[in-house]
Fold this protein.
Amino acid sequence: MALSTRTKVLRLRTDPSGHRIVVAEVERDGERFEVKGNSFVLAAGAANTAAILLRSATDRHPRGLANGSDCVGRYYMQHNMSAIMAVSPVRVNDSIFQKTIAINDVYLAGAHRPYPMGSLATFGKLLGPILKTARPRVPLRALQAFARRSVDWWLMSEDLPDRENRVVVDAGGRIVVHRRLNNYTAHRELIAFARRMLTRAGYPLVLHQEFGLETTSHHCGTARMGIDPADSVVDSTGKAHDLDNLYIADSSVFPASAANNPSLTIAALSLRLADRHFGPLDNRIVQ
Ligand SMILES: Cc1cc2nc3c(=O)[nH]c(=O)nc-3n(C[C@H](O)[C@H](O)[C@H](O)COP(=O)(O)OP(=O)(O)OC[C@H]3O[C@@H](n4cnc5c(N)ncnc54)[C@H](O)[C@@H]3O)c2cc1C
């Protein structure tokens, strides 16, 4: 087995039957070549996995590969997300590696609300130069003074799978993302909840910044998992419904975004896929 770095997958090609992928067309340092294989595992992230499948359209697969359901690229999600700085004039936060604290008290519906609001967790310590990128007009010294007295939180609420929120590839081959916000009331309420809680905890100044389409760090959903081939791209193990030897092992298979960090779920699904289709994990560990 070989790992090919700096190598971009352009498209996947099937055999004449259209049921099996036989070649990945790739580009490395300006040179194009083909990679052959028996099985193909796509894990290019929610935007690029969908784009590769869409760019691989042929007469047999006119809407793109693995796209009999017309779901490839659709149901794009990325969380409703905000950052909060809770600032105290009297407490200095000199953490270098901020300890992670997560609060899931309003993750589920309950007495507080008939619907879930989401989760919040501390993230790596904000510093003056980081803040400067978001607030270029504010003097660095002022930003440093804030950062020295802040505890910093990342807020996440679930955005819901909407068929019209989608990744497409335009005529020039570029990826275009269409997204309209949904479930945002819950996110605004999560922000208000966090503000109240942090003020009560002794941080009189609570600043927040909401993030939109420019923050794609948690994107997912564009090759959704499901048991119905008419309404999903991969089955419950990650194998494409429409092809005999295509598997997807990234966040694009998420049928819902939940309201928590995605990486461990991606890893768990990928390990399960590998175990199910390529044999027990123990047999594949290279010493
Ligand atoms: C700043 C930041 C902080 C984050 N913090 C957290 C966190 O604390 N906890 C958490 O759980 N998650 C976090 N995330 C989210 C997490 O990193 C992603 O959800 C996760 O990496 C997605 O995994 P993936 O396999 O779907 O895609 P990716 O990790 O994006 O992997 C896709 C890979 O495919 C490659 N690729 C794309 N297109 C092609 C192509 N055409 N040919 C070849 N290769 C291609 C890319 O270069 C990349 O290496 C964070 C993300 C960011 C950006």
Observations:
- The chain has two domains: 7-75+219-284, 80-211.
- The longest helix spans residues 184-200.
- Residues 8-9, 43-46, 48, 52, 217-218, 250-251, 261-263, 266 surround flavin-adenine dinucleotide (CB under 6 Å).
